[in-house]
């Protein structure tokens, strides 16, 4: 193949798109502005750096839509899932990874690939010709974001994303806290003890909520609006929605028994998940925050077991931008006004590492097919991959379009199955069985031979 595919952005989507295209024989250039141009959230110049959680969420491919997406990406030879599997950490039924070795491994694989080169320069305008995928994610540089806005004639939509803090494990008081996955999930003892749990009494919880509500928060700049994505709400915003919200969300006490006091049920529990293979770092699950740094240390040390905690990283907040994809992109993920440019990843309005990588996987395959004159069959909307791309390229209501995680609500119903909670297990299994068969058939029919 003599043509070159240019990919702007070396995050989850850009890395996966590059891998798929390069393995099909396409020459690929990844344009990554880091480390020359830094962002609020990134710490390194590695490709596929994880900037928020270290979790790819549920790995259950029979009862969970994101687990199904994991399965589909593995079947397609995805680099993100293969590398995540190689660097996974105990996390009960979830797939969590050791973030730094994961990103280092993805970077090493991509830079070693004979069909891939990396240009560490900022792309600040939309190219007029050539084949391009823009996968710059929610932290698209200001100049490129302005070029996109000028081209689309619309203001980019925006929401705010918050990052959870990370604690040094040695500073957690294990005389108060204990190791246990909720409902003892996991096949091994290590997985069944993948989380550290910090219990609260009712009085401690109420005092914690009071402190959250009173703490100093990051102020928004003029013209910014706090349009949060519901899947990544700051804990103080959740607390503002009702004092019991956290206790029924990330701090729910169900499925846990405190071995220090097995007869007394905790009123609320803060959970920490391992953040690296050494087990020296733990992130506080669901504790994204926009509190100022000084307030964070005071408030988080109110949690029993974290009274002497030291933090490897405190939480933060940043603005994310994304396209109104249902109006701007065609079914091939191309910008309607400039069809030589595809978009992939979070900038298209999907939310989550796996969803972003999945859209990169599709964009890379679609680009190669177009470059080689190969006609690919439509991605079945019965699959997790197809449900997502259908949603962002026209299935969603443009007027209310917001970032979306993969979920079974995006799938067409299976006829003859009961609705409601009682029929959910059978319904989800039917969704995943159908998706696996349809995805395997699509992969076989859309194979791209290396040229």
Give a verbal description of the structure.
It is found in: Cytoplasm. This is Methylenetetrahydrofolate--tRNA-(uracil-5-)-methyltransferase TrmFO. Its cofactor is FAD. This protein has 13 helices and 17 strands. The chain is globular and about 65 Å long. The chain folds into two domains: 276 residues, FAD/NAD(P)-binding domain; 158 residues, Elongation Factor Tu (Ef-tu), domain 3. The chain has 451 residues and is α+β, with helices and mostly antiparallel strands. The chain has a six-stranded mixed β-sheet with strand order 6-2-1-7-17-16. A six-stranded antiparallel β-sheet has the order 10-11-12-13-9-14. A three-stranded antiparallel β-sheet has the order 3-5-4. The termini are close together.
Describe this protein with a few key phrases:
single chain, 451 residues, alpha+beta, FAD/NAD(P)-binding domain, Elongation Factor Tu (Ef-tu), domain 3, 6-stranded mixed beta sheet, 13 helices, 32% helix, Methylenetetrahydrofolate--tRNA-(uracil-5-)-methyltransferase TrmFO, transferase, FAD
Provide the CATH topology of the largest domain.
Answer: FAD/NAD(P)-binding domain
User: What portion of the residues fall into strands of 2 or more residues?
Assistant: 15-25%
Distance between the termini: 6 Å
* Domain tally: 2
Radius of gyration (Å): 22 Å
Helix-residue proportion: 25-40%
CATH homology-level superfamily of the largest domain:
FAD/NAD(P)-binding domain
CATH architecture annotation name of the largest domain? 3-Layer(bba) Sandwich
Mean pLDDT: 90
By secondary-structure content and strand pairing, the structural class works out as: alpha+beta
Number of helical runs? 13
Strand order of the largest sheet: 6-2-1-7-17-16
How would a textbook summarize the main sheet? 6 strands, mixed
